[in-house]
Each structure stands twice: as structure tokens, then as C-alpha cells.
Amino acid sequence: VGSPQSSSLLQPYDFLYYSGVRAYFSGDWSRAAELLEKSIETKQTLLKVQRNYTVRDSLWDLWLLDGVQQKAECLRFCTGRHITPTAQLPVSTDIDYEFGTRNPYNFLQVTYYKLQKAAAAAHTYFVANPSHLEMRNNIEKYRRMEGVTDDDFQDREHEASSDWTQAAEKWKACVNETLRLIEDCRVLCEVAPQHLPEDRGVDTLSLSLLSCRHYCVTQVATRPGRISAQEDHLPTQLEHLHIAQDVKGALRTLRSLLMFYPSDKDSLDNLQLYYETLGGDTESPETQPAQEIVSYVQRSLQEKKLLYFGVENLDFSFTDPVSSDVGVTITMDDEVMNGTNRVVLDGVMTEKECDRILHLATVSASVGDGYGGRRSPHTPHETFEGLTVLRAVKVCVEKFLSAMWGGGISAFRVLLHSYFRSPSGLFISFTHLVCRSAVAGEQEGRLDLSHPVHVDNCLLEPGTNQCWKEPPAFIHRDLSAVLYLNDNFEGGELFFTNRDTKTITARVKPSCGRLVGFSSGPVNPHGVTAVNSGRRCALALWFTKEKLYGDRVSTATS
Ligand SMILES: O=C(O)CCC(=O)C(=O)O
Ligand SMILES: [Fe+2]
Question: Cβ contacts of residue 293 below 8 Å, gap of 6+?
């Protein structure tokens, strides 16, 4: 051991392996990598050497046992020129097992992982301490190791800071670009002629111009080919910028962000934190909100005031593209509703908007009964004013929704489509404004439902749980939705059941601006409990994936 000749001979690979594993467990990663690699390499070379000196046995040789013996001796002699005597000894079954299951590679992959981290750490240190000899040696050693590449020698300090600076610069550019695009868009409003009925005065014309300018926010926030705008386009960019900046910059951006949402709790908490971090230095000019954002928000608020004045006093219709009081929230999902493809969204309409539609429905309610003498197709204890009665209203409702939502009923389609993420398109199949009123004096001991349990696109057969996809069921309906308009009544809860139609799995209490969406198929049997007092109004909507079944009435009136 130790002679120059013996050091060039192949070492026992089991010994190298054990040493490597020992280094591994003591966390000496570079030594572990070296030894483990060596053991694998040695085992492979050993096999090659032995193969080289093995002469194929012929049948004749086998007769001459002597010859076999001689060959073995020859092999030992020849290989002995390359291999140390101990390495010629057979290895233990443990080692056979280890190599058979490729366990050395398992140790190696962890070792390499550690080494890559070590390479980065060593390099990071070395950048600041170029005369540190030991570190230089380490780096050289890491470089020679298999599995360690140039990419592993990263300056972690440098990378870390430059990433954030770059990100902040890019987000700042984004904010500026958005502001610029909005300005460009606003200029176009002035150039483009405003379409107005002839009898409208000059007030409406300027309001119209204002409204056009105001829509620039959504226009700029809508990516090409998309129908809906990205929500909170500008504030979102400010939020990103805020995260990427250092404390002073972040404070400035946070204050800009607070111009949009002055009562946002997270922002206010952060503000407090920055105040504490910066001690007294919070009033310096560089920590004030960006002037362009201040002007932008102030101008927007002023314009909004004028527009709302027009809505209230001049019968001007305007929908705020960034209205803060219409924020749609997901109130219930599949999990809460114990089912598949069910959702309850809130805030799709404001009280005022619900009232407008209810008013339209009330005006026409006096027209009469549309069910051939029957009060309701479902129960004798309620009156039911459906589409037949409210056909005239339907046109108004759609018009009203168009003004309110830009896209009319289609806006709900977009909303549900984006929630359920169905890959195919959705078309409005049918809409139905329905009010159910309790018949006073007939509610005592009532056991029936306002709307019996049913599935919207097939006929559920009681007892067998089969759902037949055949007429008179509206078999092409794929997605159902109900938009509720009021809550001043008793009863009238929507409920979902299991396929057995008996086990209730979820209940939804109607209220203004609540939109329930669910797939129309047999996973969603549903019904409505008795309306015991008052009048319950809802707009039922059905959608189809088949363009062919799109509602011709809707298209004709929109
Ligand atoms: O009004 C509701 O809540 C549900 C109505 C319904 O299920 C239907 O009309 O098919
Ligand atoms: Fe239904």
C-alpha cells in the first residue's frame, strides 16, 4: 500500500464505496462525490479488465480440467497487473446488492445537489474574497466534479439584488405604459364622433364624451382576443411594483395604491410597517404617492361625479367600468354545496339594479295569468308569472341589462363560462323572468313545493333514478343559472338533492344580486321550497354548447 505502482492499480471498489458513504454521512460532500464516483468507475474498469483477459471456453477446454485451471490462473496473473490483490477478492453480497440496486447513484444525486449549492456558496464568497486560497481550491475541486456545471457557480448576492431591481424597473415601465395607453385612448374619444339620438342636448354629448373616456380603463385592460377586461389592471401592476421595490420606493407605491383603495386592510397594515421601519422619515418627497397616479385618480373621481349627476338628473345611462360596489364574489362552491358543478356568486347586481327589474316586472304583473286558468304549473298555493306574461318585460330587461352590464345577459354567460372553464363555447338558450307569489290564506299546513325536484335537461324517473334525455325535457340545455332579485318573502329556497331526489345536499337562500350556476344534467336535481308569503322573483337562464340552439328571441331583441 502506498507504493507508486500500487496507487495506479485498481483499488477495491467496495472499500471506495464504503469510504464514500462514510464521507456522505459526515457531510463531506466533495469527498463523498469523489469516492462514490471512483467506486463506480473502478467497478466498471474491473469488469472491463476481466472481460479482456477472458478467453472463451471451448468444449475441448472443458474436457481438459487442467486447461480451465490454467486459464483461471492466467487470468489472475494478467489482471494482477492492473488490480491490487485485495481488489481481486470477491466482494460481499451486501455490496453486490448495493450496486445491483444502483444505490450509489442515490447517494450521488443528493451529493451533487449539495455540491451545486456549495459551488454557488463558494463562488459567492470568493467574489468578495478573491485572495482566499482555500476557497479557490474548493472551487477548482467542485469544477472538476461530474454533475457540477458552470451554471452552479452563481453569485447569489448579485443575482438576488439584480432580479428585484430589474423586476421593479419592468413593473414601473408597465405602469407608465398603461397610463400612456389610457391617455391615447381618451384622445380617440374626442376625435371619434359620439353617437347620440338627435333630440339629445349638448349636456348629453359632453357626458357621452366623458363616458367614452371612462371606458378607456377597461379597453386598455382587455387583451386582444379577450372579451373581458383584466380586473384591477392598474392597481395590480402597482401591487407588483410595490413588492419589487426597496422600502422607500415601496412606501411611495403603496401610497399610490391607497389612492385606489383607501381602506384596504393589507395595504394599511403594510403602511404601518413601513412607518415603523423608516422611523421618522416618512414625509420625504420620494415617499409620497406618484403624482401621475394622484392626478389620474382625482380626474377619474371628478368625471365619475359628473357622470352620476347625468344618470340621476338627465336620464343618462352609464355603467361604471370600475365600479367598486359591484364586486362579484364566490360565496359557495362544489365543496360547500356537496355536489358537482355548482356555484353561488354574489354581487352581480346592486339593490338599485334589482329594484329596476322588479319594477318592470310589477308593472306588467297586472296583465294577467299566463297558465290557462291555473295559477301556477307547479302548485295551487302560488301564482306564477312567467315568460308568457312578462314577454314585454323581457325586452326591457335585456335592454336594461345591456345598459348595465355592457354585454346584457351575455355578461352572465361570460361570468359562468369563466368560472366553470368549459372548453367549448356557451350560447344563451333561453331566459325566463319568473315571479312566484304566495296566495294569502292558503298557506296553513302546506306540504308541497313551489317547484318540485327536477333536472333541467332530462326527465328524472321516480324510483329508478334514471334520467331520460328526451322531450319534453329541454335536452340541449347544458348550464343553468338563476339570478335572484329580492329576499322580501318567506320560504322559496332553492335546494339541490342527490340523484334519489330526497336527500338534500345544499340550500341557497335567494337575495338580490345572487347568481346560482350549475350544470343542467342529472348531477344536479333541484327544486324550490314553498313560497309562504310575499313574491319571489328570479331570472332563470339556460345556456347550451350547441350554437344551433341559441335563443333566437334574445338575438332578435338585443
Ligand atoms: O327559481 C329557482 O330558484 C329555480 C327555478 C328552476 O329550477 C327552474 O325554473 O328550472
Ligand atoms: Fe330548474
Answer: 238, 256, 259
CA of 510 to the centre of ligand 1 (A): 11
* Contact predicate 410/427, CB 8 Å: no
Query: Would you write out the chain's pLDDT as a tens digit for each of its 558 residues?
Result: 333 344 577 888 999 999 999 999 998 988 998 899 899 888 888 887 777 765 554 544 444 445 555 666 666 677 677 777 777 777 788 888 888 778 888 888 888 878 877 888 888 788 777 777 888 888 888 888 777 777 777 776 665 555 788 889 999 999 999 999 888 888 877 666 555 444 555 556 677 777 788 788 888 887 766 666 777 889 999 999 999 988 888 999 999 999 888 878 888 888 888 888 888 776 777 788 999 999 998 888 888 777 777 776 666 666 666 554 446 788 898 889 998 889 999 888 888 778 877 877 766 554 444 555 556 778 888 888 775 434 555 666 666 665 554 455 667 777 787 777 666 777 877 777 888 999 988 888 898 999 999 999 999 887 788 899 888 788 889 999 999 999 999 999 999 999 888 899 999 999 999 999 999 999 999 999 999 999 999 988 888 887 766 554 333 222
Closest ligand 1 atom, CA of 480? 10
Task: Report the C-alpha gap between 267 and 256 in whole angstroms.
Answer: 11
Tell me which residue has its CA closest to atom 8 in ligand 1.
Answer: 540
Distance in Å, CA 482 to ligand 2 centroid: 9
Task: Give, for 164, the enclosing helix (H) or strand (E).
Answer: helix 156-191
Q: Is the CB of 387 under 6 A from ligand 1?
A: no
Q: Is 314 helix (H, G, I), strand (E, B) or coil?
A: coil
C-alpha span between 239 and 237 (Å, rounded): 5
180 is a catalytic site residue: no
| Domains annotated on the chain, with CATH | 4-154 (no CATH), 158-313 (no CATH), 329-557 (2.60.120.620)
Residue 520 CA to ligand 2 centre (angstroms): 8
Q: Which three cell numbers stand for residue 285?
A: 418627497
